[in-house]
């Protein structure tokens, strides 16, 4: 049901995982349970999302002897904020919270996993080629355009309404979200769509029963417009502007 990418360590990483940013306590446990019941074996977390203890509860409830899911079969990613580089900072990130963890991005990823924003409006073609050359697996965050972000702007492009994607959805009797997730998985990119809605959680992993034609893969890639939804901003003189954009190491001026 859920294909895998193989990391340079030999470990298998399911191509579709459940995102959990913005999944509030009170909602996230049920979302993770629905995901595990629907065949997800990859959950994307972070202490900064403020919900890992409840995700840990879902794991306790669903995994273990006689519960049908083995802990070692579930790929869990957690990540540390950029100020957490000391080994002592790792402990709050998960063993205690989540009981079981496979990858802590930034510190313990064996240089085999890279997580970046990617979706058809930010196709990351150059970065993906770079990753392939170096046997790195790319994970796409905000794969559906992160429509529940607090800073969503009314004039920004709406990925899930993109006509080229809607046309493919109609052809395959799938939803735009499924076309987008299929496009990523078909080019070997791991995706971690977030949802707290049972039907969408199920829908987002039902992407392994159809195949986009090579030309259709190109059509989806062609809607790229270098659009980044996840840009930290600050307010200067009453205007919202990208934070640190003038810094020499600001990452988002590069073509990926
Ligand atoms: P996303 O997955 O692109 O979009 C989530 C939104 O799409 C939610 O509003 C969800 O609604 C809705 N949705 C889900 N499935 C849908 C479907 N089939 N049809 C229509 N709408 C659907 O946004 P994201 O949360 O920004 O990104 C995904 C995950 O990536 C995060 O949760 C997080 O785990 C990770 N992430 C990592 C970083 C990083 O810096 N490393 C940054 C951003 C995100 P409902 O929930 O209401 O169903």
Strand order of the largest sheet: 3-4-5-6
Residue windows where pLDDT falls under 50 for at least 5 positions: none
Q: How many angstroms separate the termini? A: 31 Å
Radius of gyration of CA atoms, rounded to a whole number: 18 Å
Q: What would you call the structural class?
A: alpha/beta
> Major β-sheet, in short?
4 strands, parallel
Site (Lowers pKa of active site Tyr): 79
GO molecular function: oxidoreductase activity, acting on the CH-OH group of donors, NAD or NADP as acceptor
Protein name: Alcohol dehydrogenase [NADP(+)] B-like
Pfam family, one: Aldo_ket_red
Which structural traits does this protein have?
TIM Barrel; 3-stranded parallel beta sheet; 8 helices; binds NADP nicotinamide-adenine-dinucleotide phosphate; oxidoreductase activity, acting on the CH-OH group of donors, NAD or NADP as acceptor; AKR; Aldo/ket_reductase_CS
Structure description:
This protein has 256 residues and is of the alpha/beta class. It has helices spanning 28-38, 52-62, 95-98, 125-133, 163-172, 176-186, 198-205, 214-221, and strands spanning 4-6, 12-14, 18-19, 42-44, 75-79, 103-105, 113-117, 137-141, 190-191, 233-236, 239-242. The protein has a single domain (4-253), classed as Alpha-Beta Barrel (TIM Barrel), CATH 3.20.20.100. The chain contains 8 helices and 11 strands. A hairpin with a 5-residue loop joins β1 (4-6) and β2. It is globular. Bound molecules: NADP nicotinamide-adenine-dinucleotide phosphate (NAP). Residues 19-22, 44, 79, 115, 141-148, 160, 175, 177, 192-197, 200, 203-204, 230 line the site of NADP nicotinamide-adenine-dinucleotide phosphate. Residues 17-92, 111-223 form the NADP-dependent oxidoreductase domain. Belongs to the aldo/keto reductase family. The record marks 79 as: Lowers pKa of active site Tyr.
């Amino acid at each position: 049901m859920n294909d895998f990418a193989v990391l340079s360590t030999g470990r298998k990483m399911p191509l579709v995982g459940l995102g959990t940013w913005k999944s509030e306590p009170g909602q996230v446990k049920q979302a993770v349970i629905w995901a595990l019941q629907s065949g997800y074996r990859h959950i994307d977390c972070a202490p900064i999302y403020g919900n890992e203890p409840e995700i840990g509860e879902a794991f306790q409830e669903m995994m273990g002897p006689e519960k049908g899911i083995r802990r070692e079969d579930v790929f869990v990613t957690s990540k540390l904020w950029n100020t957490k580089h000391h080994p002592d900072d790792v402990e709050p990130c998960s063993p205690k919270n989540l009981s079981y963890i496979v990858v802590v991005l930034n510190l313990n990823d064996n240089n085999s996993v890279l997580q970046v924003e990617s979706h058809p409006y930010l196709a990351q073609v150059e970065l993906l080629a770079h990753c392939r050359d170096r046997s790195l697996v790319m994970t796409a965050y905000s794969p559906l355009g992160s429509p529940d972000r607090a800073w969503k702007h009314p004039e920004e492009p709406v990925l899930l309404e993109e006509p080229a994607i809607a046309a493919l959805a109609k052809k395959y009797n799938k939803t735009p979200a499924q076309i987008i997730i299929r496009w990523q998985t078909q080019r070997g990119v791991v995706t971690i769509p977030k949802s707290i809605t049972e039907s969408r959680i199920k829908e987002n992993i039902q992407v392994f029963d159809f195949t986009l034609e090579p030309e259709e893969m190109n059509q989806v890639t062609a809607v790229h417009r270098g659009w980044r939804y996840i840009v930290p901003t600050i307010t200067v003189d009453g205007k919202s502007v990208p934070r640190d954009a003038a810094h020499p190491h600001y990452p988002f001026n590069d073509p990926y």
